[in-house]
Amino acid sequence: xxxxxxxxxxxxxxxxxxxxxxxxxxxxxxxxxxxxxxxxxxxxxxxxxxxxxxxxxxxxxxxxxxxxxxxxxxxxxxxxxxxxxxxxxxxxxxxxxxxxxxxxxxxxxxxxxxxxxxxxxxxxxxxxxxxxxxxxxxxxxxxxxxxxxxxxxxxxxxxxxxxxxxxxxxxxxxxxxxxxxxxxxxxxxxxxxxxxxxxxxxxxxxxxxxxxxxxxxxxxxxxxxxxxxxxxxxxxxxxxxxxxxxxxxxxxxxxxxxxxxxxxxxxxxxxxxxxxxxxxxxxxxxxxxxxxxxxxxxxxxxxxxxxxxxxxxxxxxxxxxxxxxxxxxxxxxxxxxxxxxxxxxxxxxxxxxxxxxxxxxxxxxxxxxxxxxxxxxxxxxxxxxxxxxxxxxxxxxxxxxxxxxxxxxxxxxxxxxxxxxxxxxxxxxx
Length: 430
Ligand code: HSE
Known about the structure:
Blueprint: E1 5-10, H1 14-25, H2 27-34, E2 38-44, E3 60-62, H3 65-68, E4 76-79, H4 86-97, E5 101-104, H5 107-124, E6 128-129, H6 140-147, E7 153-159, H7 162-174, H8 178-187, H9 195-199, H10 202-216, E8 226-227, H11 235-244, E9 246-257, E10 260-271, E11 283-290, E12 294-301, H12 305-320, E13 347-357, H13 362-372, E14 377-382, E15 390-397, E16 400-401, H14 402-413, E17 423-427
Parallel strand pairs: 1-2, 1-4, 2-3, 4-5, 5-6, 8-10, 10-17
Antiparallel strand pairs: 7-9, 7-11, 9-10, 11-12, 13-15, 13-16, 13-17, 14-15
């Protein structure tokens, strides 16, 4: 057997502890698969005394994780600290400078610095592996980058944030409103430290930017991702979605259009019979559409200690076996800076929900605003009868341009009979 692969783990929180446990419990299996043992030779974490469920007495402890990354005995640095900057970035920079392979679960960091780090890893002749950074335990990076290499992909999309999916699923199943279900998600420990990352689409945007880069062989362009979260989704919209045959999901979508690559994260109405509509609770899913393979759907746990550890372990086995490719599938110099398509040019169908005064002529005014912006209506639902009071009116449109839809919404908002800002949700055709 070849000499052991010596790894250093920076960050022993939930994912770090899960990874150590997997490496200990599966040591024999991994050694057989990799053709050599994978040994935790060093660790670095804030709290030395916490019980991580494994014996760490043989590992060297470092206070300074960046110094650990420079340790000449170490072959691979596993960064599980998190955060786009600071210690996590220092550790990875130090590891690459000292020509050590890097495994990371850090989506924010890969979304912000992935292109530069990929080029540096390539220069150093080492791997930069990040399967755990997107969709936890789902092997999506390897699938897009290697297993689908024979295809041109037209579109990649998915449920990339388990917390938002849990909130939307629970709202639908229990009839509760957003704020109450968010509080429950936080109690259950699903939400990121800053819940805004989950519910405002930031976490999903990080993951989408990485996926788009892998899928389309372009530099990571986080700034080019349009992101909108789920705060404005109400129980009423969830009920109307059901009635119209849709389910509301927060999706990340990367798609080639005539104007360039579209990258967007926002709530979507998806037809109830599509595979993505059936992905519920904290589960994630990624769908890729290739010209030869057709549609590929991957579903699984997108977070949590063991699922994420499963992806870290897969990267380690690849490195131990000498199997690794450029981080984004092609050499850094060949990444193709496809232009990004502006959101205003997006074309799709829309769901609009208004609260209007129940009086004659209201629908005519709304229809006139749509007509003036050349937006074609597909259906209108008005429920209830409450003369002089607020009633919901729901419109769906045929495919139209985002900029026209936004202008029409501005006009509708300005109407005296429209009592609240209209709610708009894009309808996806899968
Ligand atoms: N907060 C993330 C989620 C965890 O809810 O999916 C994994 O990135």
